[in-house]
Amino acid sequence: QVQLVESGGGLVQPGGSLRLSCAASGFTFSGSVMSWYRQAPGKERELVAVITSGRNYADSVKGRFTISRDNAKNTVYLQMNRLKPEDTAVYYCNAKFFSHKVNDYWGQGTQVTVSS
Q1: What is the strand order of the sheet 65-70 is part of?
Q2: Which of 12, 52, 54, 55 minimizes the number of CB atoms within 10 Å of its CB?
Q3: DSSP states of 72-90 as a string?
Q4: Quick one: pLDDT band at residue 11, thresholds 50, 70, 90?
């Protein structure tokens, strides 16, 4: 059974930092494409960062956020620095991998609130 469990969200002041974690199980983590998405109130879910052999970021977070993965721990991280109020959203971990077909799984989400 595939599980993605996010943690690390919370309330932080503008300019602060948070590190999100997503612990994965139930599939071959090292062969997967792992991503972070976010959804702010009233807005559509958007891609924040993705990691395979390389990394890609949304323009709005380039230079501030870093995605990384530890295949030994089956965990993907999102280090968020210089946070802004507009980064406030629910952040979701996503896993895509091929096993007989393309599989696409989501975590439950973790709230990040940037406010003074």
Answers
A1: 3-7, 18-25, 75-80, 65-70
A2: 54
A3: TTTEEEEEE-S--GGG-EE
A4: very high
Rounded Cα–Cα distance for residues 2 and 76 (Å): 15
What is the pLDDT, as a whole number, of residue 12?
A: 98
- Distance, in Å, from the CA atom of 18 to the CA atom of 91, rounded to the nearest integer, reads 12
**Two structure tokens written together for 17:** 């930092």
Residues ≥6 apart with Cβ < 8 Å to 69: 29, 34, 51, 75, 76, 77
pLDDT tops 90 at residue 70: yes
For residue 11, what are the contacts with CB-CB under 8 A and spacing of at least 6? 113, 115
In whole angstroms, what is the distance from residue 56 CA to residue 115 CA? 27
* Angle, alpha carbons 83-88-94 (nearest 5°): 100
